[in-house]
Specification:
Layout (H helix, E strand, L loop, with lengths): L1 H14 L13 E14 L2 E4 L5 E14 L6 E11 L6 E11 L12 E17 L4 E18 L5 E9 L5 E8 L1
Antiparallel strand pairs: 1-3, 1-9, 2-3, 3-4, 4-5, 5-6, 6-7, 7-8, 8-9
């Protein structure tokens, strides 16, 4: 009897969402666009390590993510941690972010149509520090991110993003991704 019940439950799970004539799995939605820097919110804290590297923790920036899909378009807030080589030629980055769906830059997060919560890892390569601007004038940043829809129109959805930036061309990431 137990085998029959388990078999019945297994078949029911496999067939859920299927009609008599058709059975389709959820389809991924691909997107692409840009993420543009808006403002620094908090510079974070900087610690010079014994080996000369810099550890920057808790840097917060506001960005605006724009794509052809409204479910991944809106104000984004990124918390960034950096482990930077002494000459700024390379770094590891990691942290968390939130995308407030449908919210314009500067908008109140409470007015978002939904919220994505994101974790990410990133790498800086080919970095050149410019003392005149106290930041990088050149370099490439590559970000891989995973997110979960926490509220509103994206609640329960899962997504992946890839962000790439060539700093010499400005503080704009090109982004691609998909979500279910």
């Amino acid at each position: 009897m137990k085998k029959f019940i388990l078999l019945f439950l297994g078949v029911a799970l496999l067939l859920s969402g299927c009609s008599k004539d058709e059975c389709t799995a959820p389809q991924a939605s691909d997107f692409s666009g840009t993420s543009t820097w808006v403002a620094d919110v908090d510079p974070g804290t900087v610690t010079v390590l014994d080996d000369g590297r810099f550890l920057i923790e808790g840097q917060i920036g506001e960005w605006y993510d724009s794509s052809g899909n409204k479910l991944v378009t809106g104000k984004s807030v990124w918390v960034v941690n950096w482990l930077v080589q002494p000459d700024w030629s390379s770094a590891k980055l990691w942290g968390t972010a939130k995308i407030y769906v449908g919210l314009e830059s500067g908008g109140n997060p409470g007015n978002a149509e939904g919220v994505w919560e994101i974790t990410y890892d990133a790498a800086l390569t080919e970095g050149v520090f410019d003392p005149e601007i106290s930041f990088l004038s050149q370099g490439k940043i590559f970000v891989t991110a995973n997110g979960k829809g926490k509220s509103g129109v994206v609640e329960g959805k899962l997504a992946t993003w890839t962000y790439t930036m060539d700093i010499s061309k400005g503080f704009v990431y090109n982004l691609t991704g998909s979500f279910l």
